[in-house]
Design brief:
The chain has 340 residues and is α/β, with parallel strands linked by helices. It folds into two domains: 3-146 and 290-339, Medium-chain alcohol dehydrogenases, catalytic domain (Quinone Oxidoreductase, Chain A, domain 1), CATH 3.90.180; 159-286, Rossmann fold. It is built from ten helices and 15 strands. Helix 7 (245-251) links the parallel strand 11 (233-238) and strand 12. Helix 6 runs parallel beside helix 7 (245-251).
Length: 340
């Protein structure tokens, strides 16, 4: 089979994406299944893996990409949950099936501390896969495991989003666009930001209540405050990290909720006082994807509301390097996919 590997080159920090043409087909052991992959998608985390900036990187020699969808090709001894031909998606954390998060799950984060999905065939525990909703293509399904589930946990599992509430989503990357779709379908009003008027126009077509160009409105938190009649938003999808957290705290309502998801502005401590969290009795949740059980609950909601992920562009398997470059460019709206 063919597979890609992230390989160390001359002790450099950045890893190289290497195509291996004739790797042996993996065989499922007891309790495992083999999946013939049909599509994968990329996340910002995959750029961090490639540049050696992610704490969950295995340091080279790993199959990249956490997100993928395909069909069961073979089942191991004792597997009754799946049969050949079933369409499935892999969970981001291979071993997080249900219950609270455990730090041990970091040892099996697909595409980082263990092999990911960018291969013709993938083997894993039967419980680490979930069924693909019937209304989705494999390319659409491949967009869900990281960005989709992160937005779901942030808004629904931890945020307990209710109809009529307001959500601020920063940027128009995968997580924020999913948050826009989920929140709108749940009856919430979404304010979304971008530096691109074209991307904001796309967001309005998806149901955004208000849009803010943060290049033209550097004090975007003040703009959010005015839009909400000086109340603030109930939920913030905070993907920037230290560079934007201060403004997010200014924009959140009393008793509101900030889901801290990304580190697009770096890893340093925030250049802002945390006092607004106390003064406004705000909940701050760190969100890192979710469990297989959460994944199944999200899929039921997607099927009920007939929500389809937004795909910016699809590259062929042989064009995987170009897919990384397109994500790195920041020109995308929604998800970047690699398809077979």
């Amino acid at each position: 089979m063919r597979r890609y590997l992230l390989q160390s080159v001359d002790e450099a920090k950045e890893l190289e994406l290497v195509l291996e043409e004739n790797a042996p087909n993996p065989e499922p052991g007891p309790g495992e299944v083999r999946v013939k992959m049909r599509a994968c998608s990329l996340n910002y985390r995959d750029l961090l893996m490639k540049t050696g900036q992610s704490a969950s990187s295995a340091g080279g020699g790993v199959v990249p990409l956490s997100d993928g969808a395909g069909e069961i090709d073979a089942v191991g001894e004792g597997v009754t949950k799946w049969k050949a031909g079933d369409r499935v998606m892999g969970g981001f954390f291979r071993d997080w099936v249900d219950g609270p998060f455990d730090l041990g799950y970091h040892k099996a984060a697909r595409g980082g501390s263990c092999d990911g999905m960018l291969a013709d065939f993938v083997v894993g525990p039967a419980d680490s896969f979930v069924a693909t909703p019937d209304h989705l293509s494999d390319a659409e399904a491949a967009c869900l495991p990281c960005a989709g589930l992160t937005a779901w946990q942030a808004l629904m599992e931890r945020g307990h989003l209710a109809a009529g509430q307001t959500v601020l989503a920063l940027g128009t990357g995968g997580v924020s666009v999913f948050a826009l779709q989920l929140a709108t379908a749940a009856g919430a009003r979404v304010v979304i930001t971008s530096s691109s008027d074209e991307k904001l126009a796309h967001a309005r077509k998806l149901g955004a209540w208000e849009t803010i160009n943060y290049r033209e409105n550097e004090d975007w938190d003040s703009r959010v405050w005015k839009l909400t009649e000086k109340r603030g938003v109930d939920h913030v999808i905070e993907v920037g990290g230290p560079g934007t957290l201060g403004r997010s705290m200014n924009a959140v309502a009393a008793g509101g909720h900030i889901a801290l998801i990304g580190v697009l502005t770096g890893f340093s401590p925030p250049d802002a006082t945390l006092f607004p969290l106390l003064a406004r009795n705000v909940d701050l949740h760190g969100i890192y994807v979710g469990s297989a059980a959460m994944f199944e609950r999200m899929n039921a909601f997607l099927a009920e509301k007939e929500i389809r992920p937004v795909i910016d562009r699809t590259f062929s398997f042989e064009e995987a390097e170009a897919a990384y470059a397109h994500l790195q460019s920041g020109e995308h709206f929604g998800k970047v996919v690699v398809g077979w």
